Amino acid sequence: MNHPEDFKVRYCFYSDDEGGRKSLPFQGIRSDFWYESENHTMDGNFIIWPEFESKNGELIESGIVLNEGIARMWIINDKLRAYHQERIKIGTKGYFIEGIRTGECEVIDIVGLMSNPTKK
Hints:
Elements: E1 7-13, E2 32-35, E3 48-52, E4 68-75, H1 81-85, E5 93-97, E6 101-110
């Protein structure tokens, strides 16, 4: 991608006992990010994907990710960028969705969300 991630979240995956995953996911998982908003005007998937960081804040290249930590979030559907610009703020609470909620998260940093991505 030719632009920085759109925002960062602090996340925690639910355990199997909490109704979450049986095991931690691998880097590259395409779970969707869903957040609550009083003024959502759409249903369905937002197509916002995570990339997980190590404890040192570096991108995990491959392998299993941490149970809790920081993830860089990417809005994949540029047509929804303006929609999310109006709704995602620091402190927005959300969830990782894989058919069910597998984790919870909170927006902690806005990085490239307010910009238009550079085209290739």
